[in-house]
Amino acid sequence: MNGVLIIDKPAGLTSHDVVNRVRRSLGQKAVGHLGTLDPMATGVLPLVTGNLTRLAQFYTASEKTYEGMIRFGFATDTYDAEGTPTSPAQPIKVSLEVAEGLAEGFRGMILQMPPPFSAKKIQGVPAYKLARKKQEVVLKPVQVEIKEFEILAAEGDRVSFRARVASGTYMRSVAHDMGQKLGCGAHLESLRRTQVAEFGIASAHTIEEVDLAGRQGIVEELFLHPRQLLPDFPCVTATDETAARIRSGRTVNLPELSRKRYVKVFYGQAELIAIATRVAGSLFHPKIVLAAEHAPQPAAAGARD
Description:
Blueprint: E1 3-9, H1 15-26, E2 31-33, E3 42-49, E4 64-72, H2 96-104, E5 108-112, E6 121-122, E7 125-126, H3 127-132, E8 142-155, E9 158-165, H4 171-182, E10 186-196, E11 199-200, H5 207-216, E12 235-238, H6 240-247, E13 252-253, E14 262-267, E15 271-280, E16 283-289, E17 303-304
Parallel strand pairs: 3-10, 12-14
Antiparallel strand pairs: 1-3, 2-3, 4-9, 4-10, 5-8, 6-7, 8-9, 10-11, 12-17, 13-16, 14-15, 15-16
Helix pairs in contact: 1-5
């Protein structure tokens, strides 16, 4: 069963918990995710199944969009609401004007210190494992990009926001650093991811919906149509002969729809059989083959749109 399934992850589960649950629903082991969500966070968690797990390499730098709430008054050791407060809570009221002023300093390319409770590795060990053991966590700031950071509302000690960020950006660190700048501490109280690459919350399904579809044997009806994947890559529909060459990993000539480096190669309307890389001109070589070779039916050589 090969496909892409968008889950609306509930709070309280790790991304790996969700993967295991869907593995049981689908009855197959080949299930992975395209970008971890913290247990506290909810929202878009794209899953890839079967041979399409090989598409993960194209999503390592995906842009993400979030909505959430920052609470001012005290910081926590995890930079979110699940952590232990690192100082007594201070009564504070943050105005919309103050919140917008703080947000301005976090737009664009910035240096950000990852949270101590994160997957960043220190000499091969994830930082969160050291932090849980109360061992020293020494991380280095990294450059990240916050493409949009909009303050939606401010009420009392809470500020709601929407942000669009490049891969590797921690909204927990943004909340923590905003509290440091204001001098009162802050942490991320809630976070919901609404978009990862081309995958939006409107296409997401709950785990319960996937479980039910699994029992009914209709899980594939929840999969995204493969032509929606990797929208920056042009689609080419291969003939039988071209498809056979691609399935066996051989170089082929494909229509030059654009000068893009990669193209998605389909057999029919819905079977994604490969991602091919341009060698030169109209000559392409399969970078990854997603469908096994089978006996082709007679057809004219070449490919069509």
